[in-house]
Structure formats: structure tokens, C-alpha cells
Specification:
The complex is a heterodimer of chains A (about 550) and B (about 325). Chain A is built from 19 helices and 20 strands. Chain A has about 550 residues and is an alpha+beta fold. In chain A, helix 13 links the parallel strand 15 and strand 16. Chain B is mostly helical. In chain B, strand 1 and strand 2 form a beta hairpin. The chains are: A alpha+beta (about 550), B mainly alpha (about 325).
Chain lengths: ~550, ~325
């Protein structure tokens, strides 16, 4: 406000001076023009001050938490938009959740039972939920959502294709029976949101349904409006929420297309925290934000990670010794420092990070280029033509094709350098996402750099198996392992519901990663989230970070 | 064949070629639109992919897809975007309104400012004022728009706090929209006016040494009258072509400005659609741009003949 006053004062001073100057000379056309110009300036200054003041007044009336995000919502479609489907986990929570210990527990469901053969699942639904329009939330909503999602959401077609029956056992219990066993249905149902039957039963094509106004929910908050031109999604308190009351009146998601501008918004106070699913606040901007002394920083080890994976079907990387040598060629300390500014941990050979339930400690990955050279030499790789690069056992020069997405350009350069140090020639291909996916799906690479997300680590048979199982596909899926022993492990995990057996199988999977090296973790990164000191009481979920119901209920404005 | 028919034929052929290229170029890009649609953390099997591909009409032979594409265009159907979950025409219309406001205003302001100051700078080329304005506009012309946008945002929105950091509006009232648009429009205007200034100045420098300004002076016209009545109009011919092209590309948006100011415009729409291989949106957006460019060229042809009698008499 004081800056606007200063601007106003300066302009007034200027006009006074000019008017006085005009008194000493003839009133010319030029002076008239100047007067018009200056009047316009004053008008602009007053106009700006009014807008800025109105904006502040509007924001100060209630305790509204403002979250800045670079996650763009493409359309106001709560059913189909990927990012919006993450944001509505507060208003339309799924049946299950992953708790802070990494265990799957009930969220909307209070109890889960399954048949011996895992074809039948019974969910008992909590009876203390109400939709924000005053309608009682019921098991019918859950039943409807499961069938409706299977029918209309293309990537949930597995529900439609294998669902035998779905029915209410009583008013709070849902029984669903499938034609094949699903041992991990509880995990699947941590991601599918629940929609109001009384609204959606009249919407025949939810993928084409846009609603930028009120989207009712049964969580502690519901969507008041989605304004993509303003870049804001507003959540208000659910007036019928029966659980513990939140300390904030609502929250807003502010969407920014540029993380640097979002950092400025944090510093300026336009937003109170930063959220991007599976990602940290940009490490390079942390120091600057720390200097403002307005933020605390939450640091959690990510479940997702950055890794290099190998083409196991052809070329030198099909050889286990070669892969082993490459794993010793990488300077993990340096790569963590240069790519993540040290925000993370050096990984071990088991790939899976300690933040994931079922983690088993294994041998640390270490940087030992001499050992790498020895392994290669023992395996028959030698520099026969003395050009500084190794040839394979048949005498043909090795030139690795390293596939790198634009996002990981620095890692690509570092790997090229590390491999050169042990005599491996590498051609790095920096590609956009589409080209990277196309090359990856055609196995047109020897080594590639990729990342996994928390949900990605859970998908399929857990512990990152979804990325490697050759029977699967998808944008981030590498499908590079067709070893029957690995596929068998995946199938066993998928067929088992026994916690102890699952623990053993998790250990076996990590042992497989350590021994067969289909991929090597480059670093386990930390997710750093700046949290304005004005707010406290944040809770952290392994899957969605600070963006979870517990967090929004307990967060409060500090006195 | 009269000139009019020749031109009409040329424009029709151009349109047909562009519309055909709109169909083929996105399909030549690497990647699979179905895989892109799912996002990086969804894993599924081939059968599921085939079902979605069929729903999107991608399993039909390319020739048939091309025929259907023409059929839809002739019926003014632009298709459905699986990425944005809505009809392409609705999506484009929503984005075009705001882009028109953002880029349209800048093109108009930039044309007037550039032409006015450029003509004055060229006419009085030796003077201090001319040298100063030339340096200033050359400076703006040399600075990349995205960098200028970040600088302006940093000083006026972050440091001084007199403008907002993002979006077209917050409350949606007219003053609020103007408040949000001042900075991005200013940056774009500075850039387009700087370019127009350079062209106009060069053109006036050429025109002022011809015989007709001398003749006009001999008739007794003042310097100002010679510039405004004669030189300005002759010098503005190259500018008309540029402004016509600007109007042609008005709906291609201003990608960097939209990213810096977090605005949903045509620039980011096309960028997102390229990343997602969203064929219907790309086809629709490029169709609109092609139509605009061709129309703007027709308009430039007409304006040329109005401004320059030599062109008129060629007919």
C-alpha cells in the first residue's frame, strides 16, 4: 500500500510542478497534452491501488490456505483430468489410503475383508459422511462409483471386464466379485475417487462433463469453483462434515505455469506452500526462500527415484557383467550433489528406497572405476585397437546409446563422462517426452534415464515391478524384464495376501534387482516442501505428500 | 484470367495444402497419443490400449481417417479432445477470446506506437530525440520477450507489488481484468512496437530522399504536412504486410508471455497439444491460424491497393 501511496505522491508532485511551470509561460497545446497524460497516470495509480487494496481486503477476511502448484489442470472435469483427480482426493476421498507408515488402511472404508481366493472383496463403509449438498453419503455411492468408473474411465476397464457382480450386503457394506483374483485391490482403491450417485447417475458421459462451478464432495472440503483463466481452484468447508473440524475456512490451489514465478509468489506471500505430486520444491530455489525466514521446510525421502535402466534384450547391456561394471562406474555422490544439490541419499543395489514399506537393506552402490575396469577386462572387453575405448568379445567397438529425456540432461552428460572413464563410448540422445517414449517402447537404446513416482512404485506387483514387467506397458513403463523368474515373482506377489509371505517376496524382488541389475538407482531424492511459518500442523502421506485429508484437518494458523 | 480470380485460386490452393498438412504433420511426430493420454504412472496391457485406440478412431486406415477429416472440416466439426475432455471448437473458442484480448491489443497498440515514433525518428534522423528513441526501441527489440516479461514481472509485480503475478483476473470484474492485463500487454506491445518502429524508420529514411517530398515542399507544405500526408503513407506499405501477418498469427498466441504470466491462451494450448499429440486440437488450432493468415493476406492485398494507387492501377 505504501508503494502505491508513494507512486501517487510522486505523480501529484509532478503535476504540481508542471502546472506551476505552465503559469510562467503561455498555455500551449503541449502542456494540455502533458496534463492529460498526467491525469491518466493519476487515474492509473488510483485504479491500481484500489485493485490491490480490494484484493488484500478480500483475502484477509477468512483463514484461507493458498497452495501454489505447477500441476496444470487442463479442464474442469473432475472425472477425467489427471491433476484435478489428485486435487479432489480431499473432497472425494478414495476407499483406502496409505498411512504415514506405508500401510494400506481404510479411509472411506472402515473395514476390508476378502475371500480366500481374492475374487471377492467386502468393504464396510463409514456411516458418518455427508455430501456437501446435505445428502447422506452411503455405500450405494461407493458401489455406483466402482461400477461407473469401470464403465467410463478407459484405464479402469479392468473393472468392467472382470467384474462378475457388485451388490450391497447391507446399507453400509459393499460386496464386489471378480472373475479373477485381485490380491491388491485395496491398493488399487487408494487411487479411485468416489462420486455422488445422485449427481452422476444423470451424467451419461463423465469424460465429457465439464463443471467449473460447485462439485460436491463428502470430505472435509468440497470444490466451490474451478476457474482456469484465473488459475485458481477454490475449496470450501463441507458444512455437513461430521469429523474433526478443520481450523481453516477453506483452501485455494493456485496454478502457475512457471516454477520460477511460483517461487516469487511464495516469497511475496501470494501463496503459503508449494505442492507438486511426487516432486520436490526446486532445490535451486530453496536457499533463496530460506533467507526470507518466512518458511519452514519439510523434508521426506521420496518413494519415487531417479534411475538408469538397461536394454536386456540386445547389445552389451544384455551381459550381466557389463551392467555390473556400469554400476561401479557412476559417481553417486557427485550425481546427487549436481543433480539434486545433495537433497537425497546414495542408493543401494536393491533399487527400492527405505521410505517404502517392505524395504530390505542391500549392498551400497559405490563408485569404483578400477573395479569396473577389472570386471570388464575379466569378462573379455578390451581396447584392442588402442583408441581409448573398449571393444566387445567379438572385437567390435562398443558405443552405447543413452536415452535421456530433456528433464535429465545433466545426468545424461554425467553418465557419458563416467562411462568414458572406464573406456565405454556413449552417444547421448536428448529427446522430448514423445520421442523418448517411442524409442523406449521400440527398445531403441542401451541405457536410459528415467524416474519413478510413488504410485508407480506401488503399481502392478509393488516395489517398482510395474516399471520392469515385460507384460505391461504405459508411458513410464520400461517393460524390459522378461526373465521368467522375475515374472514368477510378480505373479506370486499378485497372488499372495499373506503379509509375511509378501515381506519375503519383497525381499526376493530387491535381491533380484541387486543381482540381475535390470536398473540402477542413481539417487534417492528428498521431497522438500516449503511451509509458511504462519501455518502449522502439517501431516505427510507417502503417496501424496502434504496433500492429504489429515493434513488439511490439522493445519492451523499460528497465533 | 482476371487478377482477382488468379488470387482467389492461389489462396484456395494454399488453404487446401495447409489443411492437408495439418492432418499429416502431427501424425508424423514420434510417439503414441494413447500412451501419452494415460500419463507416466499408469500401466496397462495391449488389449486395453487397442480398445482406447479404437474409440479414438486411430485404428482406421490413414486414407479413411484423412477422408473423414475433410468431411468433418466441411461440416465445421473439429472433433473431440481426449486430452482436454471437450469439443475442440468449444476449447478453441474459450482460449481465442482471451488470446484476442492479450495479443490483439498488443498488435494494435504496437502498430500505432511503432508507426508513429518510427516515422518521426526516420524523418528527423539526425536529431537527438531520433537517436534516443532508436536506441530505446532497438534495446526493446533485442531483448527476448520472455526475458523482458520476467524482468517486468520481477520489478512491477514482485518488487513494487502493483501488478499481480499471474492469470487473466482474480474476481473477473473489468478493472480486475485490466489490472491483470497491463503487464503482459505492455511487454508484447513494446516488442511489436519496437519491430514496427525499426521497419517504419527504415522505410521513411528511404522515402524522404525521393523527389516527391521535395516537390511537396516546393508546393509550400510544411515538414509535418509532407510527412503526414505523403511520406507516412508510402512508407507504411512494408508495415502493412507485417501487421497483416501479425493479425494472421494473432490466434497462435504468445507462448512465452502466457507461460510467464500463467495465462491460458492459444500458445500454451498448441504447446500442450504438441506434447500430448492431441491430433484434433492441433488440427483445429492450425486450421484457425491458417484461415486467419490467408484472410489477413487478402486484407493486406486490399489495403495495399487502397493506400498505394500504383497497385490499384496494375489491375
Amino acid at each position: 500500500m505504501e508503494k502505491i501511496c508513494l507512486l501517487y505522491w510522486l505523480t501529484s508532485f509532478l503535476i504540481q510542478t508542471l502546472v506551476q511551470a505552465g503559469n510562467f509561460s503561455r498555455e500551449t497545446k503541449k502542456l494540455k497534452m502533458k496534463r492529460i497524460f498526467i491525469s491518466l497516470m493519476i487515474f492509473l495509480a488510483v485504479f491500481l491501488s484500489m485493485n490491490a487494496a480490494a484484493s488484500r481486503e478480500r483475502e484477509s477476511k477468512q483463514t484461507i490456505l493458498r497452495i501454489g502448484t505447477p500441476q496444470e489442470v487442463k479442464s474442469p472435469n473432475v472425472f477425467g483430468d489427471y491433476n484435478l483427480s489428485i486435487f479432489i482426493k480431499i473432497s472425494n476421498p478414495p476407499l483406502m489410503k496409505i498411512d504415514s507408515q506405508g500401510h494400506i488402511t481404510g479411509l472411506t472404508a472402515s473395514k476390508v475383508q476378502m475371500s480366500q481366493d481374492f475374487t471377492e472383496w467386502i468393504f464396510t463403509i463409514r456411516d458418518d459422511f455427508w455430501w456437501s449438498d446435505g445428502t447422506k453419503f452411503s455405500a450405494e455411492d461407493v458401489l455406483f462409483s466402482i461400477v461407473y468408473t469401470g464403465k467410463h474411465y478407459p484405464y479402469a476397464a479392468w473393472i468392467k471386464n472382470t467384474l462378475e457382480s457388485a451388490a450391497l450386503v447391507d446399507e453400509n457394506t459393499v460386496r464386489i466379485k471378480f472373475s479373477r483374483p485381485y490380491t491388491r485391490l485395496d491398493l488399487e482403491f487408494t487411487s479411485y475417487n468416489i462420486f455422488p450417485k445422485h449427481i452422476y447417475e444423470d451424467i451419461p458421459d463423465p469424460m465429457n462433463h465439464l463443471n467449473s462451478g460447485e462439485n460436491i464432495g463428502f470430505g472435509p472440503f468440497f470444490i466451490q469453483n474451478i476457474d482456469l483463466n484465473a488459475g485458481v481452484i477454490c475449496f470450501s468447508r463441507n458444512p455437513y462434515w461430521q469429523g474433526r473440524q478443520s481450523h481453516i475456512n477453506g483452501f485455494e490451489i493456485h496454478i502457475y505455469k512457471n516454477t520460477d514465478i511460483l517461487s516469487l509468489a511464495l516469497e511475496k506471500g501470494d501463496v503459503d506452500t508449494y505442492y507438486k505430486y511426487a516432486s520436490s520444491y526446486p532445490y535451486a530455489n530453496i536457499e533463496r526462500l530460506k533467507k526470507t525466514n518466512k518458511f519452514d521446510f519439510s523434508t521426506k525421502l521420496n518413494i519415487g527415484l531417479v534411475f538408469m535402466a538397461f536394454n536386456l534384450k540386445q547389445g552389451a547391456t544384455a551381459d550381466l557383467d557389463f551392467r555390473k561394471a556400469l554400476s561401479y562406474a557412476v559417481d553417486y555422490d557427485e550425481i546427487l550433489l549436481l543433480d539434486a544439490l545433495g537433497f537425497g541419499k546414495n542408493p543401494d543395489r536393491g533399487f527400492v528406497p527405505p521410505s517404502m514399506a517392505g524395504y530390505t537393506e542391500s549392498e551400497d552402490l559405490e563408485y569404483d572405476p578400477d573395479r569396473a575396469r577389472r570386471i570388464l577386462s575379466d569378462a573379455g572387453y578390451a581396447d584392442r585397437d588402442a583408441d581409448g575405448f573398449l571393444e566387445d568379445r567379438k572385437g567390435q567397438e562398443i558405443s552405447l546409446s543413452l536415452l535421456v529425456r530433456d528433464d535429465w540432461a545433466r545426468i545424461g552428460e554425467l553418465l557419458e563422462n563416467y562411462f568414458a572413464q572406464i573406456g565405454i563410448k556413449t552417444a547421448v540422445r536428448f529427446l522430448d517426452l514423445n520421442s523418448w517414449v517411442a524409442a523406449k517402447d521400440h527398445y531403441d537404446y542401451d541405457v536410459l534415464v528415467a524416474r519413478s513416482t510413488p504410485w508407480g512404485m506401488f503399481m502392478h506387483a509393488n516395489w517398482g515391478t510395474g516399471y520392469f514387467d515385460s507384460r505391461r506397458t504405459g508411458q513410464g513403463v520400461l517393460h524390459n524384464v522378461d526373465d521368467p523368474s522375475f515374472l514368477k515373482l510378480c505373479d506370486e506377489i499378485l497372488a499372495s495376501g499373506d503379509p509375511q509371505k509378501l515381506k519375503d517376496l519383497a525381499r526376493s524382488v530387491q535381491r533380484y534387482y541387486a543381482e540381475k541389475i535390470p536398473a540402477v538407482a542413481l539417487y534417492w531424492n528428498e521431497i522438500v516442501t516449503p511451509l509458511k511459518k504462519e501455518f502449522s500442523g502439517w501431516k505427510h502421506s507417502p503417496l501424496y505428500g502434504i496433500y492429504n485429508i489429515d493434513s488439511f484437518i490439522s493445519v492451523r494458523k499460528t497465533e | 484470367m482476371p487478377v482477382f480470380y488468379k488470387k482467389a485460386l492461389r489462396y484456395a490452393l494454399t488453404l487446401i495444402t495447409i489443411i492437408s498438412l495439418n492432418f499429416f504433420i502431427p501424425r508424423l511426430m514420434p510417439g503414441d497419443p494413447v500412451i501419452n493420454l494415460a500419463g507416466e504412472e499408469i500401466s496397462f496391457n495391449e488389449d486395453q490400449i487397442e480398445i482406447i485406440r479404437k474409440e479414438m478412431g486411430l485404428t482406421k486406415p490413414l486414407g479413411l481417417q484423412y477422408l473423414n477429416y475433410w468431411k468433418d472440416i466441411l461440416q465445421l466439426k473439429l472433433g473431440y479432445s481426449y486430452h482436454f475432455h471437450q469439443e475442440v471448437s468449444r476449447l478453441l473458442f474459450g482460449r481465442m477470446q482471451w488470446t484476442l484480448l492479450l495479443v490483439g491489443l498488443s498488435v494494435v497498440f504496437g502498430a500505432f506506437i511503432g508507426a508513429f515514433f518510427g516515422s518521426r525518428a526516420g524523418w528527423r534522423s539526425g536529431r537527438f530525440g531520433s537517436r534516443l528513441s532508436t536506441s530505446l526501441f532497438l534495446f526493446f527489440y533485442s531483448v527476448p520477450p520472455f526475458f523482458m516479461a520476467i524482468l517486468f514481472l520481477y520489478f512491477f509485480a514482485f518488487k513494487l507489488g502493483i501488478f499481480p503475478l499471474k492469470g487473466y483476473y482474480r474476481t473477473g470484474t473489468l478493472p480486475d481484468i485490466i489490472w491483470h492485463l497491463v503487464l503482459p500487454v505492455l511487454v508484447l506491445t513494446l516488442f511489436t512496437s519496437a519491430r514496427n518502429f525499426v521497419i517504419m524508420r527504415g522505410s521513411v529514411l528511404q522515402e524522404k530522399n525521393r523527389l516527391y517530398p521535395l516537390f511537396a515542399r516546393a508546393k509550400g507544405l510544411s515538414d509535418k504536412q509532407v510527412l503526414n500526408r505523403h511520406v507516412f503513407w508510402n512508407a507504411s506499405l512494408p508495415l502493412i504486410t507485417l501487421i497483416a501477418l501479425d493479425f494472421g498469427f494473432i490466434f497462435s498466441g504468445a507462448l512465452f508471455i502466457e507461460i510467464v504470466f500463467s495465462m491460458n491462451g492459444m500458445g500454451t494450448l498448441i504447446y500442450d497439444s504438441i506434447k500430448a499429440l492431441d491430433y484434433p486440437v492441433l488440427q483445429g488450432a492450425f486450421l484457425v491460424i491458417a484461415l486467419m493468415v490467408v484472410s489477413a493476406n487478402i486484407l493486406a492485398d486490399i489495403t495495399y491497393s487502397l493506400v498505394d494507387p500504383r497497385v490499384r492501377h496494375q489491375r
